[in-house]
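Methods — Computational structure assignment.
A single polypeptide chain was analysed. Its primary sequence is given first, followed by the predicted tertiary structure written as structure tokens.
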Amino acid sequence: MIVSKEEILKYIPQRPPFVMIDCLESVESDTVTSKFEIPEDNPMVSEGFFQEGGLIENIAQTAAAGVGYKCISNNKPVVIGFIGSVKNLKTYKLPKWGETLETEVKTVSEIMNATIIKGVVKNSNNTMLECEMNIFLQDQ
């Protein structure tokens, strides 16, 4: 783990209770991985299950934390991103609260302030959701 739960808020713009990642496991040139143990009182939990919107936000926050990590590592301010679109969304299963998600985000391409990513959320090697996102970074 390279960024702990105690430190994660330095790397993302979201604040509790809308934080959907606990820690960064790795940040490489084009791949970021995170983990998240779903709390029962998370606003995206309904009838015991973490909803699709929470899984999508988990992917977006994993991407944001990776960008934040790179910014801080280069002594630059953390850049805020916005989801422009979600494509090729496939939901296979909704996890229950208390389960731990493992999320991998790969950068497909970057052009100026636009980034296309592919995200996959798993739980115990079972794919929960996958999609592509267009993310736009705010100009500094």
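Note: Helices lie at 52-73.
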